[in-house]
Structures are given as C-alpha cells and as structure tokens.
C-alpha cells in the first residue's frame, strides 16, 4: 500500500522468486489472463540457459529433464481467472507452511496462487469484502477507504506471503511435483526458487497496478492490447504508468491480431489493421513481442483448464526423443514446429524473448 509520508515505499523482491514478469493492460477483457496462463506454460517448456549444460552425456541428460520452475500469480482480486484457466477450480484451499505462508497449488507443472483459491466457490470477492466491512464497521455501505484497504491487504499477502519453493509442497494431487516424479521442475539447480513468476494483473492502471510497481521489484512488464483504437489508448496509459514508476517494459503483445480461416488458411483482420498498434509501439519505443491470433481453440482450451501452449509439451517430448537419438542438444524455445498449433508457437516465441 502506498505509504503515508516518509517517501515512497521501498521495493522488495518476492521471496523465492528469481524473475518477475507482469502481464497487464490498460483495458479489461483484452486477453491478459489467457496470455499470462499460456506464457507461464510456454516458459515452463523453454530450456534453461545453455551455459548450465555440460557437454557430456550426463549434462545433456540433465538438461533434457529440467523444466524451468514457473509460477503464476493472479492479482485480480475481484475477478480471478487463474483457477479456471489452469483447471484448478475444484482443487480446494491452499495449505499453509509451518511458518504460515500460503502454499501454491500446481497444475501442468506450474505453481499457481489466486484469490479464487481462498474463497468458497459461491462467494464473490466483492461480496466478501463488503460483508467484512459491514461486520467490522457496522455500516451498510462499504466505505471506499475500507474496501481499498482490504484489497491492498489481499494483494500484499498474495505478493509476499506465498512460499513458492517446491520442496515445501504437500503430497496432495495439486502439490509440487517431486523431482523424481517425472515432472522435474528443477529443484536441482539454483535452489528451489521459482525461475520466473508470471503475474496476471487486474484490468486498468488503478491502485493494484500502482501498488505493484511501488512495492515489488518487477523485472519485465508486458502490456497486452487488441487492435482497436480504444484498447490502444489504454495500452498507452499502461506503458506510461510503468515508465513513471521505473518498471522495465519488455514489450507489447497484440492479441486477437488476426483470424486465420481454418479451411482456407486466409487471414482476416477482424478488428482492423494493426497499423495503429505498430505505430504506437514505434512512438513509444517499445518492442512488439508477438501477435496472438483470434482463435476459438485458444478460448476453449482456457475454458477447460488446458492452456493451448500445452501443445508444446508433446512436441518437446517427441523432438527431445529424436534429439537424444541423434545425440543433439535440445531447446524448444529456439525452434518452431509445424506439428504444433501456430498459437502455441507464438507463445514459445514470446517466452524465449522474456528469459
Ligand atoms: N486470442 C484469442 N482468441 C480467442 N479468444 C480469446 C483470445 N484471447 C482471449 N480470448 C477470450 O477472451 C475472453 C477474455 O480473455 P481474458 O479473460 O484472458 O481477458 P482479460 O484481459 O484477462 O480480462 P479481464 O480484464 O476481465 O481480467 C476469454 O473468454 C478468452 O478465452
Ligand atoms: Mg483477467
């Protein structure tokens, strides 16, 4: 929460996280959560840096087995999407560590935390906050300041009171995968910290966005926009907030940039040309990280908790097998495959630019 006097609050690292990437947008509904979830999955399938790999057979084997340790934090307190997008809606409540920290739930090898895990399925975060304010304050209408404080408290807890280390997970179905379980998420290298935490932001440039940039050491911010002019205006506001708060901006992602007809392969610019988006990126001196097509399958995959970028897993396995036969090094991030849906390749490409 912004401090009262005494200068701006000091930025803190998120415990047990090596790199923080924020996915944001000035506008709601442009695909932040979909992109954050797919990016988290794609990042987990990109190989860690080549320099870690020994040239011998053992190093080669280790490298093939290691997945980056990735976390996905849902900071949208009022509209959490991560439980659904990652198929964790019925995963139950997170357990607490001996120190009282929240333990993430795991899906597809990604450590996840969301306000959605902390509330009963029927409860809306908004109702709960209003209920709490009424009970405490004896006031029918929740005072705005009260609600703001509750939100900020929740945000701070999600940012700083989660123990992202794999080894502290329990043995439940949504607990951290154990290195020997076949889903090695890399506890062997660099301790058991997360390599990357992807943060899915609520829409807009309000209190949560401002607090995040004041409280946390963010390594890279990604701003998502769709091609429409109204979205571009808000994307500009998002970039401007990060600039003002000295958060490094990794680049822009254009979502729903085009639609490829599945039968003819023809491109349709359903929301107009991307010329205005390209011009904005140029004017702001911000790189374009990728263009994600409008794809019904991407939405359907999110609705059933199986992010489309999971297609990279099957490709990773088959090409790792082929490489092993040839004795080659393998790096999914540096390649594109025609056997993987184009959208999954787009996410792999964006992931490669972020690590
Ligand atoms: N490239 C795409 N192709 C098809 N559908 C998409 C695409 N991107 C997002 N969607 C769909 O658009 C809807 C909104 O996406 P999403 O929830 O990710 O947006 P958001 O920016 O996180 O929204 P909010 O601001 O409410 O948090 C979802 O139904 C999602 O499946
Ligand atoms: Mg969202």
From TrEMBL:
Domain of life: Eukaryota
Keyword hit for ATP-binding: yes
Sorted UniProt keywords: ATP-binding, Hydrolase, Iron, Iron-sulfur, Metal-binding, Nucleotide-binding
Entry's Gene Ontology cellular component terms: mitochondrion
Region annotation Disordered: where it falls in the sequence: 47-66
Entry keyword Metal-binding: yes
GO biological process terms held by the UniProt record: iron-sulfur cluster assembly; mitochondrial respiratory chain complex I assembly
GO-annotated molecular function: 4 iron, 4 sulfur cluster binding; ATP binding; ATP-dependent FeS chaperone activity; hydrolase activity; metal ion binding
Family (UniProt): Belongs to the Mrp/NBP35 ATP-binding proteins family.
Entry protein name: p-loop containing nucleoside triphosphate hydrolase protein
Organism: Tilletiaria anomala (strain ATCC 24038 / CBS 436.72 / UBC 951)
Lineage summary: Eukaryota, Fungi, Dikarya, Basidiomycota, Ustilaginomycotina
């Amino acid at each position: 929460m912004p401090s009262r006097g005494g200068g701006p609050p000091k930025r803190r690292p998120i415990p047990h996280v090596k790199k923080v990437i924020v996915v944001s947008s000035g506008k709601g509904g442009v695909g932040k959560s979909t992109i954050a979830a797919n990016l988290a999955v794609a990042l987990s399938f990109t190989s860690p840096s080549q320099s870690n790999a020994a040239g011998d057979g053992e190093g080669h084997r280790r490298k093939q087995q290691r997945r980056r340790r990735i976390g996905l934090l849902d900071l949208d307190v009022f509209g959490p999407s991560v439980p659904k997008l990652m198929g964790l809606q019925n995963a139950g409540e997170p357990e607490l560590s001996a120190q009282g920290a929240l333990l993430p739930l795991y899906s597809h090898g990604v450590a996840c935390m969301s306000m959605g895990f902390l509330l009963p399925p029927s409860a809306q975060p908004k109702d709960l906050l209003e209920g709490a304010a009424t009970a405490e304050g004896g006031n029918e209408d929740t005072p705005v300041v009260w609600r703001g404080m509750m939100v900020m408290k929740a945000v701070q807890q999600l940012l700083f009171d989660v123990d992202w280390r794999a080894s502290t997970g329990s043995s439940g179905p949504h607990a951290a995968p154990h290195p020997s379980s076949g889903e090695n998420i890399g506890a062997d290298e660099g301790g058991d910290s997360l390599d990357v935490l992807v943060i899915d932001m609520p829409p807009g440039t309000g209190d949560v966005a401002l607090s995040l940039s004041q409280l946390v050491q963010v390594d890279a911010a990604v701003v998502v926009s769709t091609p429409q002019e109204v979205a571009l205006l808000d994307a500009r506001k998002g970039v401007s907030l990060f600039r003002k708060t000295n958060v490094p901006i990794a680049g822009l992602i254009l979502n729903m940039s085009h639609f490829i007809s599945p039968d003819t392969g023809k491109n349709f610019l359903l929301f107009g040309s991307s010329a205005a988006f390209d011009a904005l990126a140029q004017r702001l001196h911000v790189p374009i990280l990728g263009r994600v097509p409008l794809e019904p399958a991407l939405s359907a995959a999110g609705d059933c908790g199986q992010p489309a970028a999971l297609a990279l897993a099957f490709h990773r396995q088959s090409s790792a097998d082929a490489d092993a036969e040839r004795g080659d090094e393998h790096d999914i991030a540096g390649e594109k495959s025609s056997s993987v849906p184009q959208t999954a390749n787009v996410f792999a490409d964006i992931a490669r630019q972020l690590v």
